[in-house]
Design goal:
This protein is an alpha/beta fold and 193 residues long. The protein contains 6 helices and 5 strands, in the order βαβαβααβαβα. It has one domain: Alpha-Beta Barrel (TIM Barrel). The strands form 2 sheets. A 3-stranded parallel beta sheet has the order 4-3-5, with helices on both faces. The chain has a two-stranded parallel ribbon with strand order 1-2. It is globular, with a radius of gyration of 19 Å.
């Protein structure tokens, strides 16, 4: 392969997948038709971070019917990606996350990404409207409660926490990861075990 800054000649990948026969294939999808495709072709549907929970709840029904149509059982793993920010209080989490998330979603609007979202889930709203039902923001106990609710309401059992956004200092994202690991996840494990 010849790229603009590199060339690979006779290169191969010697690292083999850990899982046998293959690693699981997660298929991300926003549109209903793509969710049906994820059910048919993938090992699970990777739920996007942009849709509201009411839309995702409706789409879980579509996913289950598509799995039935494909003769497949509901997967053991149901992953979801969400924007996450932990602070001592919800108000502080919102205050600290807003500049970065607001810019990120302005860029998404400019790129037209919200045009492929289900009806009503576009990004043409103020920040206060966007954070309703889309982001996980709050204190460690509030974030844990929100994660547990996702598990109980939708069956989500794998959350990919997006904690770093354009313009955010790396140290702030690393702080988020530490708080999630040390304070949030023990509460989540205790609640769902």
């Amino acid at each position: 392969m010849k790229g603009s800054h590199f060339e690979l000649d006779n290169a191969n990948c010697t690292v083999k997948p850990l899982q046998k026969p293959t690693p699981p294939v997660w298929i991300g999808a926003n549109a209903d038709v793509a969710i049906r495709r994820a059910a048919r072709l993938g090992d699970c549907w990777y739920i996007n971070p942009h849709s509201t929970l009411s839309t995702i709840e409706r789409q879980i029904g579509i996913y289950k019917r598509a799995l039935d149509d494909a003769g497949k059982a509901f997967p053991r793993e149901l992953p979801m990606r969400r924007e996450v920010f932990v602070a001592p209080t919800r108000a502080e989490a919102i205050r600290r996350a807003q500049p970065y998330l607001e810019e990120k979603y302005k860029a998404y609007r400019a790129w037209g990404q919200d045009k492929v979202m289900p009806a009503g889930d576009d990004f043409d709203h103020g920040f206060a409207d966007l954070l309703e039902d889309r982001f996980l923001l709050g204190s460690p106990s509030e974030i844990a409660e929100q994660m547990v609710r996702l598990n109980r309401r939708l069956g989500v059992n794998h959350i990919v926490a997006s904690v770093h956004w354009p313009g955010m200092p790396n140290s702030l994202a690393l702080d988020q990861l530490q708080i999630l690991a040390e304070e949030v996840m023990p509460q989540v494990r205790q609640a769902i075990s």
